[in-house]
Amino acid sequence: MLKIFIMEDNPQQLAHYTELVREICKKFHENEIELTTCRSTEEMLAVMPEASADNVFIFDIDINSNKRAGLQLSQVIRNRDRLAQIIFITVHDEFLYTTYKYRVTALDFIAKDRGNIRQELSIDLKRIIHEHKKRNSTPVFTYKSYNQTSTIPLDDICYFASNKENSHASTIHTVDHQAIQIHQNLREIEKQDSRFFRAHRGYLINPRQVRKVDFYYRKADFYNSDSCPISQRHARKLLQLIKEDE
């Protein structure tokens, strides 16, 4: 779900932007949005969500007569959320270069006084909605950590390794060499998701990320240069799965 946050200190403009965003999202068939409105930076910071590419922040640079409040807010947002989209709607286009100095990487800088806010906002939200739908059509694996449920794209996973110290846990090894501890053992994962293959008693493999099955050394080599052991009796079945996926 897209989470859109709009901040504007003028109540009439805030209502106008809110209605615009709703109309544009409806136009592009994005009905599942969570829309939050704020009148000050304090309100915005109080409702800041967890970092996500589905977060969108729309606000002015000049907030309550402070011409740099929006820039300062955007810097805080960017420090907390590297993935979020930031859109400025302002009369202060002289601060365009300053946004680069603040390292906030804004998606757009819409001028209030040029009468094309609807058009520009429509272009921006169309792009955001397209990326959101593309992300959410990507196959994912849902896992349990110790205090929450999270998802990870299927193609980001190389394999799962059992946890020798905790029979109720295991570790996800990812394509970018992360090791994510999860509160599920291999048997539970295998039962939950048939896309993974039990190639060894202590390992569950994502066949989509296997580059080569090494029969001599009895191991699976992954595209990211990692490898993990496989049992002799499961090696041919793994190779068959890889060929079926090609």
Automatic annotation (TrEMBL):
Residue span(s) of domain HTH LytTR-type: 141-244
Keywords: Activator, Cytoplasm, DNA-binding, Two-component regulatory system
Segments crossing the lipid bilayer: none
InterPro entries assigned: CheY-like_superfamily, LytR-like, LytTR_DNA-bd_dom, Sig_transdc_resp-reg_receiver
A molecular-function term among this protein's GO annotations: phosphorelay response regulator activity
Cross-referenced SMART domains: LytTR
Signal peptide residue numbers: none
Primary role: Required for high-level post-exponential phase expression of a series of secreted proteins.
Entry protein name: DNA-binding response regulator
